[in-house]
Design goal:
The structure is a single chain. The protein is of the alpha+beta class. It has a domain of 51 residues: Pemi-like Protein 1, Chain: D (Ribbon), CATH 2.10.260.10. It is 17% helix and 26% strand. The chain has a two-stranded antiparallel sheet with strand order 1-2. The longest helix has 7 residues. The protein starts with a strand and ends in a 22-residue tail after the last helix.
Length: 77
Amino acid sequence: MQSRIVKWGNSLGLRIPISVARKVGLLEGCPVEFQIAEDALIIRRSYQSLEEMLARVTPDNLPGEMDTGEPVGREIW
């Protein structure tokens, strides 16, 4: 399978066929990392640890409580 590099503003862009993206679990907005190995460009999904994600939680972006309504079954509150 092939694709082409295209100009995108002051950068270059690469369209990834959806079949390829699905095979490696890429979604729109998914962070990726670039690596160079000799004459190859390697693109990998970027993973974050739980500690890295929790480090970004601040009082300003911490979600508040959410009312889910009255108990419906045998919930114990």
